[in-house]
Structure formats: structure tokens, C-alpha cells
Amino acid sequence: MDNAPTHYEQRDIVKASFKRSLYYGVERERVQPIKVISGIELDRRLDKNKRLLKAAQPFVNLLNEFVAESGFIVLLTDNTGCIVALAGDPAILGKSTTFGLDSGVFMSEQSIGTNAISVALHENAPIQITGKEHFVRLFHDWSCSAAPIHDEKGNTIGCINLSGSSLRVYPHLLALVISAAKAIEYQVVSSFSEMRQKEAYRFVSQILNTLEFGVLATDTDGKIKRANNLSSKLLKVPVDQIENRQLDDFIPSWPDYLRQVKKHEIIIDEEVQLIRNGNPDTANLSIYPLTDGDGTISGTVVTLRDMKRVYKIVNKYTGMQARYNFDDLIGESDEMKRIIDYCRNISDSPSTVLIQGESGTGKEVLAQSIHNYSFRRDGGFVALNCGAIPESLIESELFGYTEGAFTSARKGGKPGKFELANGGTLFLDEIGEMPLDMQVKLLRALQERNITRVGGDKAIDVDVRIIAATNRNLLELVNEGKFRLDLYYRLSVIPVYIPPLRNRREDIPMLINFFLNLKSVKLRKQLPDMDNKLFKKLVFYDWAGNVRELENFIEKYVNLNGNLDWADEIMSPKVQPSKVSPIAETQDLLAEQSQKNENSLIENGEILSLEELEKRAIENAISHYNRNMTRVAASLGISRNALYQKVKKYQSKGWN
User: Fold this and answer.
1) Which residue among 312, 341, 375 closes a domain?
2) CB–CB of 320/382 below 8 Å?
3) Are 110 and 131 within 8 A, CB to CB?
4) Distance (Å, rounded) from C-alpha 76 to C-alpha 583?
5) What mean pLDDT is predicted for residues 481-505?
6) Which of 548, 573, 538 shows the shortest CA–CA distance to 358?
7) Which terminus of the chain, N or C, has fewer Cβ atoms within 10 Å?
8) CATH number of the domain to which 233 belongs
9) Other CB atoms within 10 A of residue 573 CB
10) Which residues of 371-408 are buried (b: 16+ CB within 10 A; e: fewer)?
11) Longest pairwise C-alpha distance within the chain
12) Are 299 and 218 in contact (CB under 8 A)?
């Protein structure tokens, strides 16, 4: 209610308030309000109402200036009637203190009976209470005018009151109080809007500053109105030195883009030259026009991404990430343990690594393991097979090209593998197949640590770790004039040689078991049993294709559920290789098994026990392999630990 009640309405309102005061048990002879708070409780109450106090205090002071000399005091309460501020003539304030009128005193009906503040809050309307309209006789000489104060939602948050001698009561005092209450409400709403605007501004700023790319907002002339923190990092200039500057200070080609934007065009993912603290660089640029309701362009939003981060995202979603680590290198041979320890130690080195070994030995697995163990693990692992790229394309694949470099060149150009691997590792597989003219350019890039795109003239700095691999003897290629000696020495700063599987047979049992389990899960097949003699044949097969050939064989074995007696005709080549395949050898094993000499199980007319047969098998194997326990274990199809346990067992029974 905005208007004061009529005379008849007020009479009924006061009468009802008197009844409530009697009901609450307030004595008419009271000289002070019943409810009072102080100390910490009052401090909490003031803190709770700081928004009201901030909005109302100027108007409390203004009212006081109007009426202080007339013997009036100004009271401000919260929505429960608790006094939170007061002002007035010091003499009147001193006198009112004896009545208990001070901060922390409650002017509610429960505390002091009918008064202007309690009625205004109860009725949610302005009112003037004079003389005997007060419930307690203490205030019969007073006239009080009060009006409730509301927030932006219409909720009552307080009350403003003028109190003075009833001999000086004027009708216009209530109008003055109502005006003050309205002014306070306006200030409360304005402060709320300002607070909401500040909150919205902070919220938008927080969002902008969590984005992983720079954001610049400009007007139609390219003047920067807003910049987030990452744009400051990209431009290497503080935010306050970016805002209000022209965008072409940082992007020289901005006028060309602005002409496109004014045609309502959107620019997406353009590679653009960027001025970073006075130095040229490149960035990924997108521009979005901002329009008013009538379609008029009012500005632009510009996003900038560091090219290194763009390349990292490209690498992530195009598979240019290292998947393997040293745990994926299966083997317990001394050679593999030595190689793994060695490569762990050199992983963080910036020096180039040359991995040599036959096809299928796991050169790329080792290269990825080195990358994932290094501080470059968060960068891209970019691989290029030098033998699989046509000679005419290998330069653009390595170094990229600029727009217009050749007929089919992509708009904006394209980064090469060096740029994509910036901050990470570039793996050059089959390096021995690289053409001689490209070897010269590669050597220069490695020495100068920068590249130039095909069709361009700008040197681009790159921070790349090079790991090269080959299955060829590079020194022989050097002697044949097919590989540059200077490039060989530049690549083989850290040489690594992976021996073929036939030279580390003790790794084969572990690889067989690993691939059996892996392929069973992958193919959703039951893990097949493997005949012991087939197992031994696999261990002693030479595996010309190394780990890759072994893996492929196990995959076939699992696919066929271990049933190989009918597979040779289907899967063996028509022209037999110089080495007999494990599948063909399996046929021989089955024939041997069916023609086994039963007399080997009999001695002196008695069947030998299984324990005796096992002991004799171990004896024969130890003798045959001249106590090479690794080969003995492999031939018997057991681990070395199991072999030593069995030897210890039979030695305890008197066997030497």
C-alpha cells in the first residue's frame, strides 16, 4: 500500500493494533521496549541489513538536515522493527535514549505496543500515529510518521520514521517520510541492478577467462572494446594496453578481413600473421559479426588460437598421438632390458635418435615409448613414412606449403609435419628411403631448427625432437651414394639397435602368452590350448618377420581355435618359403605324435612314471643345450623359474 489510510481506516487500524498489544502482554506504563539486542547479535543484524543501510543512510542524513532543528529524530528499522540507524538533534537523541530508543531496540507491537513503525510494518502502508494513538503512555507526547521500504521484488525490508513532539505535528511530515521511503526503494533497486550488472560482468569475464583461446570484442571500426586474459598472453601485452587500441596494431591484415565482415561474412579458422610484442608470428583466426535487431553490424567478436595448440588438437583428433609406452615392449631378455633402460635414460634428451632393426622388431613402439617417457609427452607424436610418400610430395608433407604454392594448394596453405610436431616428436620411419635432394633440406632444417614452407619465404622456428628409424644399413647406403654421410651422423647422435627375435628367443614364450591372451580378448574367442611341441617349434622358428610375424601367426591360431591340422592347405603359400612356416611344421608334429615310439615309455617291461619321464626330459635337454638354462626352459615349454624349481626338486631326491 502506497497511500496513508483514511481517518476511519486509521481508527480501525489503531484499534486492532491495541488489541494485539494487549494480547502480547505489553504494559501501558512501560518506559522502555521489551526486546533489545546488543554486541555480536546486533553486529550480525547490522551486517544482515547492510544493503538497506547503504541505500538508506544518505536519506536518513538528508531528512535529519530538514527536521533536526525542529526537534525531530529519524529512525531506520529493518523488517522486524529493529532500529538499525538513527539521527537527530543531540538533545532529543539523548532524551530518547532514556526511553530506550537506540540501535538494537525493537519497535514491534510485541516489544512496545502500537506505534507508527509497528503499524506501518504490519499494514505494509505509511501511517502517522500521534499522542494517545500510541499504546504506551510514554509516547503520548510524541507524533510519529513511518513508511515501509521495499526491495526490487516488493518485499518489505525496513521502515523509515520521523518522531517528534505532538505539538509540532504537520500532515506534510508523512508525505516527506513517504518520499524518503520511495527514494530509498529506488536506490535499493538501482543498487540491485548495478549489482546484477557487476555480477553479470564478472560472470562473463570469468567465462571468457576460462576459454582456451583469445577473445577480442571490437566496434565497427576495429577498435578493441574488450579482451580476455588469454588474448593478453597470446599478444604478450597486458589487457589494459590492448583495450581501446586498433586491431590492426596486432593483425596487419585486419582491414581486409573487416571488409568481408561488413558484408556479413564469417571467417573461420584462417591462419593469420600476428604481431606479438612487436615480433611477427602466426595464429588461428575466426571473426564473427555482431548485429543489432535490424541487422546492422555493430561490431565483431574475434577469436585467436595459438598455432601450437591448434596443431595439438589436430594431432589429437587425427591419431597423431603416441599410444605405446615401455610397458608395451614385451620381453625378459637381457638385450631388451638393456634397450629399455637405455632409452628411458635418453628420453628427455633433445638429441636425435636413430633406431635400426629388421622389419617387425617394434621400432615405432620404441619411438612412441621414448616420446611418452619424455617431457614432450603432452606434445604431438607425428609420424611420416618416408618410403610411402611420392617423391614429389615429400617436401610439402614435411615442411607444408603456402596458399598458391601450386595449382591444388589449399586456401590459406597447409602446415607440414614439422609444424604439427612443434613442441613434440617427429618420427621419420624408413628414413633410408628418403630422396637425396630431400636429405639436404632435412639436414638444413635439423641444423637451423626452422623450416620454410613450399612457396613461402618466411622462416618458421620449430622445436621438434627427431626420432628416425630404418630396417636398412645406412652406412651401406652411404657407400652406395644413396644416403648422405653428414645426415647419417646428424641422425645417429643416439643410435639404438633392436635385435631380431631369433637372437633373443627367451622373449618368445612371453610374447606367445601375451598375444594369446590379447587376441582372445580382441577376437572374443576362448583362449585355445597350445600343444607343447608346437610351443617349442614356435620358440625355435626363426621368425623372419619378427614380432609382427609372430603376432599374426597367433591371431590366426586364435581365429582357428587352435585347430591347425586342416589350415595348412588353405593358408600356406603355393610356393614354399625357404623357412618352413609354423603351420606346416605343426603337420609334421601331428604326424610325429601319431607315430610316437611307445617303447620310450617302457623300461624292463614296466611303464615309466610321469615324474621319471619329466626328470629324464630335463636331463636330456640340459645335456643337449650344454646347460643353457634359457634354451632348456624354452625347449620344455616352461619358464626358467619353473625349471629351476624342478631341478631343485630332483636334486633333493639324489639327482646330480
Assistant:
1) 312
2) yes
3) no
4) 99
5) 93
6) 548
7) C
8) 3.30.450.20
9) 7
10) bbbbebeebbbbbbebeebeeeebbbbbbbbbeebeee
11) 142
12) yes
* Residues 232 and 333 reside in one and the same domain: no
Residues contacting 443, CB < 8 A, separation 6+: 484, 486, 487, 490
Question: pLDDT tier at 597 (50, 70, 90 boundaries)?
Answer: very low
Please tell me whether residues 156 and 270 are part of one structural domain. Answer: no
Show the cell assigned to 500. 631380431
Q: What is the mean pLDDT of residues 489-503?
A: 93
pLDDT, mean over the chain: 83
Say if residue 578's pLDDT is above 50: no
Q: 41: which 3 cell numbers?
A: 547479535
- What cell does 371 get? 616420446
Domain hosting 635: range is 609-651
Three-point CA angle 206, 308, 412, nearest 5°: 105
Distance (Å, rounded) from C-alpha 395 to C-alpha 331? 38
| Residue-wise pLDDT tens digits, 215-231 | 888 888 888 888 888 88
More confident residue, 132 or 259: 132
Three-state secondary structure readout of 499-568: CCHHHCHHHHHHHHHHHHHHHHHHHCCCCCCCCHHHHHHHHHCCCCCHHHHHHHHHHHHHHCCCCCCCCH
Chain-centroid distance, C-alpha 373? 21
Handedness of CA 518, 521, 525, 526 (dihedral sign): positive
The predicted pLDDT at position 258 comes to: 85
Task: Enter the C-alpha cell of residue 568.
Answer: 595348412
**Span 289-310, average pLDDT:** 79
Is residue 585 within 8 A of residue 538, CB to CB? The reply is: no
